[in-house]
């Protein structure tokens, strides 16, 4: 990644250098359009200090037209390249996203699975690398449930581990049951406790979404 940024920075420097060359050439053309300076007229020695030299513009000279340096042309592709580099540098400053660690809480499985799929599973990785990351982001009983698959690094082992996780934690019936159990265990809420009421409302929203699975 660092080498790519270095190459792109060199390209920008080359474009800037080409632009500077074009400006220098344009300035030289302006100087060439001057007809020169009139010669000194014969004057007495007393008037030599008062003599002025005035440059005369050539009225027949063609009007100045800025031109790019030979062989260099600022195209839309160059502009797009510069914008892409700026965007890449901006993205590079953001924190690197990563999935949370799933330890067997059924209520957290759907959220964890979506983050893992988006950040790791859909990337062009080898099966061994995906197994490594799956092992890294599992803990507790969830990791023990698929421990036997970690002895192999094939696609079938990776798929088998996910099947166990899906059957045990991602089944819609199991998720809905987990929400019901949590709802039944919910402690009484004081009518004046606004924070507790808001937390309970948020949980009911989660229950509503679980019913749609």
Q: Helix and strand succession?
A: HEEHHHHHHH
Number of domains: 2
Considering DSSP H and I runs of 4 or more, what fraction of the residues is helical? 55-70%
Low-pLDDT sequence parts: 35-50
Give the strand tally. Answer: 2
Reported for the largest beta sheet, the result is: 2 strands, antiparallel
Write down the overall geometry.
elongated
Q: Count of helical segments?
A: 8
Going across the biggest sheet, name each strand in turn.
1-2
Question: Distance between the terminal alpha carbons, to the nearest Å?
Answer: 40 Å
Q: How would you concisely characterize the structure shown here?
A:
With 213 residues, this protein is mostly helical. The protein is built from eight helices and two strands, in the order αββααααααα.
Structure characterization notes:
By secondary structure, the protein is mostly helical. It has 2 domains: 2-92, no CATH class; 106-211, no CATH class. The chain is built from 8 helices and 2 strands, in the order αββααααααα. It has a two-stranded antiparallel sheet with strand order 1-2. α1 packs across α2 (76-92) and α7 (172-184) packs antiparallel against α8. It is elongated.
